[in-house]
Design goal:
Elements (H helix, E strand, L loop, with lengths): L2 H26 L6 H12 L6 H8 L3 H14 L2 E6 L2 E9 L1 H22 L4 H15 L7
Antiparallel strand pairs: 1-2
Helix pairs in contact: 1-5, 2-4, 2-5, 3-4
Length: 145
């Protein structure tokens, strides 16, 4: 494939990504959660046990100060709480609250609604074809760039 066609595909993918992000942001607004806060909530939920702030910063690939700001906002929202580490009192762990679990469910619904907005023009056959292509491009589950 010529470079110009590859560049065109890259631009299409970037436009689609931005469109999906805007749709997700729109559907998340009523929840009072930003996309960055949603990402932190998902990271806490998928961690083996309550993570340390440093674990979150590493996983999210941000500076620790950014995690502190996100945790502060989510704590004020009632979605997470800070808890002492039982084996090291200097370490703080981040736990999801019941409200945080509920927020995660609402976020999943918002993400699905956003995806449906973007996929609405496609019929079932086109969705199946797109799903196969995305599986090929995304690689095995858990793979990262």
């Amino acid at each position: 494939m010529p470079i110009s066609e590859t560049s065109g595909l890259a631009e299409q993918l970037l436009r689609l990504t931005r469109r999906l992000q805007r749709a997700q942001k729109h559907h998340m607004e009523p929840l009072g959660i930003t996309p960055a806060q949603a990402r932190l909530l998902r990271t806490v939920a998928h961690h083996d046990g309550p993570p340390r702030m440093a674990d979150l910063a590493e996983r999210l690939e941000v500076v620790p100060r950014a995690v502190t700001s996100l945790v502060d906002a989510l704590e004020a929202h009632g979605s997470v709480r800070r808890a002492p580490d039982p084996s090291n009192r200097r370490v703080v762990r981040i736990e999801l609250t019941e409200a945080g679990q509920s927020t995660l469910r609402a976020l999943r619904d918002a993400r699905r609604a956003a995806a449906e907005d973007v996929l609405a023009p496609l019929n079932d056959q086109e969705r199946d074809a797109l799903g196969g292509l995305l599986d090929t491009l995304s690689g095995p589950p858990g793979s990262r760039c």
